[in-house]
Amino acid sequence: MAAVTLVLTRVPIDEFIFTGGKNVDDVDDLTPDERAKLYRKKGTALTDAPDVKRTSGRWGTMLLVVGPVVSTVRFVGGAAPTTGLASVIDTAATLVQMAPTVLSAAAAGKRVQVVPFANRRLELTTDGAPIAATKEFTTIERYRTNLGELGGGKGYVQMAPRSVPYPLKVEPGNRVVKTLRDGHDGLCIRVLGGERKAEKGILIHEAPNVGWVIGCISPRPKGDRAAYPNREGNPSQKAVQEIVAIMNRTGGGKGSLFVLPN
């Protein structure tokens, strides 16, 4: 049985606003005054309290690694490796396959390998088993409060970066996820091991747009930044189904999640 590992990065900060059924990117480049105006009606003084609600989201990138047990991950310098093919794993979906670069022997039975991730080099310390395949996904999470607040305990909860991985478990029939729409099967992945109370309910689940995710993590195909109607078969649902299928077939329905530093 192969291990399944997910690695999440939110760097660089890439914020967007969901409005009018569309995603408006590059709001992270706004000046403080421009951002203040975004959350106030026209003519409202910037010193007044915000009075316009917005749905703020944050883009990220998630890497799926199939094969070895991964004990540590970190970005390292240099150009991302791009050559070679790994052996094909029989999964319900096609994986991007590549041969990792073996850097050096680590402790007994372990080795350090480098794979491309988010246009950078990601170094993984593994148990020595080969990396069979990897695949990248784009992710969305809620970010600022609806009135634009962030920091000082404000903003939506997100899984905190840490060096130790969070355990993952496939969870079919989740009652909250079922409320996405009539007939939804509730399929999701539960993130375990959160240290704060609010982190203990975080899931990896489908979200056609960021309005459907609060505190959780939602994957979609790499580079897909569109907002979708809440319909069966949307790209985010298919991404969750793909990850779950791989976890069930090769990882016994379990896995781990590394959240890299912001």
SSE layout and pairing:
Blueprint: E1 3-9, E2 15-19, E3 22-25, H1 32-38, E4 55-67, E5 70-76, E6 101-105, E7 111-117, E8 120-126, E9 133-142, E10 162-171, E11 188-191, E12 203-204, E13 218-221, H2 235-250, E14 254-259
Parallel strand pairs: 1-14
Antiparallel strand pairs: 1-4, 2-3, 2-4, 4-9, 5-8, 6-7, 7-8, 9-13, 10-11, 10-14, 11-12
Instruction: Identify the overall geometry.
Output: globular
Helix percentage range: under 10%
Averaging pLDDT over every residue, what do you get?
A: 89
Order of helices and strands: EEEHEEEEEEEEEEHE
Distance between the termini: 32 Å
Could you say how many structural domains there are in total? 1
Structural class: mainly beta
Number of helices: 2
- Rg measurement, Å: 19 Å
Number of strands: 14
Main sheet overview: 10 strands, mixed
Strand residue percentage: 25-35%
Contiguous uncertain segments of 5+ residues: 83-94
Report on this model:
It is a single chain. The chain starts with a strand and ends with a strand. It has one domain. It is built from two helices and 14 strands. About 5% of the residues have low confidence. β2 and β3 form a beta hairpin. The chain is mainly β and 262 residues long. The strands form two sheets. Strands 1, 2, 3, 4, 9, 10, 11, 12, 13 and 14 form a ten-stranded mixed sheet that branches. Strands 5-8-7-6 form a four-stranded antiparallel sheet, with no helix packed on it.
